[in-house]
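dumping this here so i dont lose it
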């Protein structure tokens, strides 16, 4: 994923399905380096990881 798209998703009031290594995640923070983000598994708030934004995939917009 491009960093600019990650910013759009992060700042959007809509909920998007984003995955990292085929696992659903939330973006917690985008880093100033323009390359990395802190994420956590969608169903686990405990474990956070710093990942390369290029490895994130937008799957779809979640309809609510």
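and the seq i came up w/
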């Amino acid at each position: 994923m491009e960093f600019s798209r990650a910013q759009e998703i992060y700042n959007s009031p809509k909920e998007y399905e984003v995955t990292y290594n085929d696992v659903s995640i939330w973006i917690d923070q985008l880093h100033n380096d323009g390359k990395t983000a802190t994420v956590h598994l969608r169903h686990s708030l405990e474990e956070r990881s710093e990942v390369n934004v290029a490895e994130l995939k937008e799957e779809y917009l979640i309809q609510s």
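The helical segments are 3-11.
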